[in-house]
Amino acid sequence: MVKLMGAVLILFSASMVGWQIGKYYANRPVQLRALLVALQMLETEIVFGMTPLQRAFVKVGHRVSEEVGKVFLLAAEFLQTEKAHSAEEALQQAMNRLWAQTALRKQEREVLESLGQVLGSSDREDQQKHLRLAVTHLRGLEEEARAEQEKYEKMYKSLGFLGGLLVVILMF
Amino acid sequence: MNEILAILPATLRTILTALPIAVRENLEEIRLRQNQPLEVRFGQQSSYVTPSGQITSIPAQGWLFSAEEAAKLLNQVSQHSLYALEEELKRGYITVVGGHRIGIAGKVVLDKGEVKGIRDVTSFNIRIAREKKGAAKKVMPYLFEDGKLLNTLLISPPQCGKTTLLRDMARTISYGSEWSSSRKVGIVDERSELAGCLQGVPQRDVGPRTDVLDACPKAAGMMMMIRSMSPDVLIVDEVGRAEDGDAVWEAIHAGVAVICSAHGASVKEVAERPMLGKLIRYGAFSRYIVLSRAKGVGTIQAIYDQSMNLVEREKVSWSS
Fold this sequence. Notes:
heterodimer; A: mainly alpha; B: Beta-Lactamase; 2 domains; seven-stranded mixed beta sheet
């Protein structure tokens, strides 16, 4: 009886682990999409609205999904409270604190970091160029992420379950 | 002063807060040039400032304004959003909360031969705006005849309180005073100096019945005002171009009183200038107020009437 309960437990936890890893692969393209939308909104705010960066961050942060939005909101807060002395610093600090909570990777972070270096420090035309460049980069990453999702999401989910099953079979 | 401090980077803020109180109270300009010591102008003097906030005349002892600080200052002043200041960069100054002005210089970027903006900003001139309420008191009685506001030309060399006086006249007329009831005032503020507008809202007190066209070319602005805002009096700073003259002429004949200013040391000097000379010859103005620094900023040197006679106080007719 105890053995049976143990077997069920192992099977369950192994599937959960597999499912978690699979979910990470599923989340990344979704959040990448949100980041893309965020940058496009930022472009509108900057190029057409001439909204000061801090306000633009707040606006964008509220309008995209939570995980990604939080980064912009925190960066805006850093600018507001003068904890950061430039847009670059603000984004950097916000990412330091929140990046681990997102499904995004180092490549996406690098794109945002290099964007941060120029954000707010040139005229509108130039800002637009840099924002578009970042968006193009992210698009490439998004495609890659989708391909990975197709490849790995199902695989990890079933791998978890099957791995659990293997242990259970070996147990008996 | 506190408004200015709030927008400065922390290092600079600390130094300026440590300035002797006599200097702080009279601060007129804070001048920052990349790789040069910090300079302040107060009263009629200027001097460098040491890192501990003491004033000094030796440049080497002054606090050095580094490239990094310059970038920080520009960031802070623009709220990290240079793109929102394109127009301001084209004009060469930024107006901030409180109507203070930050003049900038650096590498100018051209586009088809026209100034597109300033890149690599290396010089800052923070001009602290001071409101001298009551500056117009001395001239107000001269501006009326039978209760009618007279067209007035304010003549003054630079830095003699011309803009301050003009602003105070606008305010006094707008609020109403013992010499006249309140009137609708239209200000065409091409250089954002009179009302110091930030996002269209005057940062200076220009009175409750005052409309301001901010950053608008004077000639076009005057016509817009007459057409749409029906002012009783139009106030314009520094007329000088030919089209300004036409607009003044037009306004005067549209039944709107005009008070404007021009650079110059005397009526004679101003009359030599082509456009103003023409206006003066045709008798467009009924009062000429000449300013100087003889007894400090804002000294009223003389007031003349249409035919260039000195106006005596007794001859002034008081309106009810």
